[in-house]
Amino acid sequence: MDLGDFDLGRFVMDVLLEDLGRSGDVTSRATIPPAAQLRATLRSRDALVVAGLAIAAAFFARLDPDVAITLLVADGDAVEPGTELMRVGGNALGLLAAERSALNTLQHLCGIATTTRTYADAITGTGCILLDTRKTLPGLRSLEKYAVRAGGGANHRMRLDDGLLIKDNHIAIAGGIAMAVAAAKAANTGLQVQVEVDELDQIEPALAAGADRLLCDNMTPDLLRRAVALVGGRVPIEASGGVRLDTIRAIAETGVDFVSVGRMTQSAPAADIGLDYLPAGDVVAG
């Protein structure tokens, strides 16, 4: 599980503190003996694509270092409703206190992976690569982009310093598309210069100034086909803006190299996953 420089330990602690408050899980402490043990399974209630199992496990391990955890599927797996994803066994107070934080995170990431897989499946066979965007929840970008990869998509920029993407506001302030691209190339950052265009007549000035890649924003499939013909393979083309599940196939079939979808991270519904009590006879492997 590659999360880059994301501090998972800090994230787990911050999320737990948000839920535990000052006094912790007062309900469990009032009703369950301190030494009580719990065996439980995390089970899908939807058809979903798995992402974030090890992250969910980290919540349980933080509040019960001796917890026994068995992962029953892998991130990236597509599973049916009722599938067991993970079994946990350990101190009941610790596991119940971690339950909501673990489930919230897992449900969110599985939701993104599931949505991503739906979009990826929709363009199978076109040769077009599915990309995410920076439309992510603050503080969760590394996790959400990991879920996109688990779902079969690819990551665009992780951060603003990953690449130059000249958009309409940059162009307006710089005084035009050619001037913006020329300034970006002169900066000698060593990074590719991608330029957003929303009109066909912006393409040649962008390429003449040295653009390495184009982002065609909110263009219809007909305009995208014309853009692909104009570019003639000189640089890669990405289609973006308002892409939906019912339109992505037609967009991908225009010949663009990439299509980016903000909805995968911005609007993915959480997957339905529950934590269910297991009778004492059910074994949880260590």
Write the layout of secondary structure elements.
Layout: H1 8-20, H2 26-31, E1 37-44, E2 48-49, H3 53-63, E3 68-71, E4 78-79, E5 84-91, H4 92-122, E6 129-131, H5 141-150, E7 164-166, H6 168-174, H7 177-186, E8 193-197, H8 203-208, E9 213-217, H9 221-231, E10 237-240, H10 248-252, E11 258-260, H11 263-266, E12 273-277
Parallel strand pairs: 6-11, 7-8, 8-9, 9-10, 10-11
Antiparallel strand pairs: 1-5, 1-12, 2-4, 3-5
Q: Please, could you describe this protein's structure?
A:
- The protein has 286 residues and is α/β, with parallel strands linked by helices.
- The protein has 2 domains: 8-119 and 269-277, Alpha-Beta Complex (Aldehyde Oxidoreductase, domain 3), CATH 3.90.1170; 124-266, TIM Barrel.
- It contains 11 helices and 12 strands.
- It has a 6-stranded parallel sheet. The protein has a 4-stranded antiparallel sheet with strand order 3-5-1-12, covered by helices on one side. Strands 2-4 form a two-stranded antiparallel ribbon.
- Helix 9 links the parallel strand 9 (213-217) and strand 10 (237-240).
- Helix 1 packs across helix 4 (92-122), helix 3 (53-63) runs antiparallel to helix 4 (92-122) and helix 6 crosses helix 7.
- It is elongated.
- The two termini are 20 Å apart.
